[in-house]
Design goal:
Layout (H helix, E strand, L loop, with lengths): L5 E4 L2 E4 L8 H9 L7 E2 L5 E3 L2
Antiparallel strand pairs: 1-2, 3-4
Length: about 50
């Protein structure tokens, strides 16, 4: 879903970097994750996604 930010390793998605800009693609990935394994937070730690 966000190939610039996640890669597939042994059947699991792994982030390319620990910190990324919260662009629309990353937010969509977090909103689409069925187990809420992806969280997006702003610089203050406030949750952006999933909502």
């Amino acid at each position: 879903m966000a190939p610039a930010h996640f890669r597939l390793e042994a059947g699991s998605a792994t982030p390319v970097a620990t910190t990324v800009e919260p662009d629309e693609t990353v937010i969509d990935a977090a909103e689409s994750c069925p187990v809420e394994a992806i969280t997006v937070r702003d610089d203050d730690g406030e949750l952006i996604a999933p909502a």
